[in-house]
Amino acid sequence: MNITGNLNAIGYGLAAIGGGVGVGLVFAAYINGVARQPEAQRVLQPLAFLGLAFTEALAILGLVFAFVL
């Protein structure tokens, strides 16, 4: 059996799923922390957005690698 094609789309799909799960976990932790200690919102909010940025950067790297390879 001869299989042709590439797996770039599957690789990016997995990277996008990972990014979605990561963003969900970051904001679930943020909501949980603010619900437990509302006064800590000013400290937790920048950390949540930083976690969002890093997680989305990994998904974008997956897109770049899908086109490069």
TrEMBL record:
Its main location: membrane. It comes from the Bacteria. The chain crosses the membrane at residues 12-35, 47-68. The keyword Cell membrane applies. It is a multi-pass membrane protein. Residues 9-69 form the V-ATPase proteolipid subunit C-like domain. It is found in: Cell membrane; Membrane. Keywords: ATP synthesis, Cell membrane, CF(0), Hydrogen ion transport, Ion transport, Lipid-binding, Membrane, Transmembrane, Transmembrane helix, Transport. The keyword Cell inner membrane does not apply. Belongs to the ATPase C chain family. This is ATP synthase subunit c. It comes from Tersicoccus phoenicis. The lineage of its organism: Bacteria, Bacillati, Actinomycetota, Actinomycetes, Micrococcales. The gene is atpE.
